[in-house]
Amino acid sequence: MAIQPENQFYKLFEVDGNQILYEKKWNEDEEQEEIKISLHLSGLCLTASIGFEKDEVKRDEAFNGIDQSAADKAFKRLSTLI
After folding, report:
1. Can you give the pTM of this predicted structure?
2. How far is residue 28's CA from residue 26's CA, in Å, rounded to a whole number?
């Protein structure tokens, strides 16, 4: 049975033999909805977060739009930080 979009909190993609993880969450410190992006590369854990203030609907719309192409682009951008 497929996971319904409203019940999906994580998306995991493979890019160039690495994994990139997207997580939708509430950031207690910033008091905002977020999409957190995590990537392990060259022994480092890189993370980035996209904030959506207190707008869960916009966060969920953005999260639902994340696909392999978005993961490829994020991987490319994050991997340049090393």
Report:
1. 0.87
2. 6
